[in-house]
Amino acid sequence: MLSRDSQLLNDLGKTGLVGIGLLIYTASAFFGYGFSQMDRLDEIKQLTHQAESGLNNNTRLRQGSAPTTSAELALYYRYFDRKQDSLDWLEKLYQIAAAENVILPRGAYKNITNQADKLYRYEVTLPATGSYVQLRRFIARATKEIPIMAIDGVSFKRDSIESPNVEAQIRLAFLLPGGR
Questions:
Q1: Could you tell me if 80 and 121 are in contact, meaning their C-beta atoms sit under 8 angstroms apart?
Q2: 88, 127, 143, 163: which could join 84 in a potential S-S bond, CB 3.0 to 4.6 Å?
Q3: Which residues contact 81 (CB under 8 A, 6 or more apart)?
């Protein structure tokens, strides 16, 4: 038997032996990699199933009763309950504009109240003039220093490309507790 195996090895030669070795290595690598990927595929399927069931639970929560408790809602409204009234916040806004060298001519002001709401919107539309950098700094600083203010919209207009100043129309909303 040994002589027959020796004869087979002799007939194959070095190239044949290398070929058989590569075949064995490739087959083991293929099956080893394939099985590990099958395990990974099962893991991904399980994660997908968990994500889908979590999505369904969130949908059921939204369709059911509101998860917000009255304490959470009270905390939310307390955030807007500041000592300052609308005039105080407008004064702060004009101080920031002056500090950033932004010109704010007279704007339009409007109270929007609804008896059912605990907050009311004080909407302000301001024309503003300054360089683009000044206007951008003014808006960034105002949103940082006036926490109850929201930006509804900003539009920019430049008369000519040579003009250093930009004209802006800034629409803001102050959210205030009812009656201020």
A1: no
A2: 88
A3: 177
- Mean pLDDT to the nearest integer, 34-52: 72
Q: Is 111 helix (H, G, I), strand (E, B) or coil?
A: strand
CB neighbour list of residue 165: distance below 8 Å, 6 or more residues apart: 129, 130, 131, 158
By CB atoms closer than 10 A (0-12, 13-18, 19+), residue 105 is exposed
Question: What is the structure's pLDDT at 87?
Answer: 81
CA-closest candidate to residue 126, choices 164, 97, 161, 101: 97
CA nearest neighbour of 104 among 85, 130, 122: 130
Q: Is the confidence at residue 75, as pLDDT, over 90?
A: no
The pLDDT of residue 21 is 82
Question: What pLDDT does 171 receive?
Answer: 95
Cα–Cα distance between 30 and 27 in angstroms, integer? 5
Q: How big is the CA angle at 167 (ends 166 and 170), to the nearest 5 degrees?
A: 125
CA dihedral 100, 106, 108, 114 (to 10 degrees): 70
* Beta-bridge partner residues of 154: 170
Structure tokens at 49: 């199933």
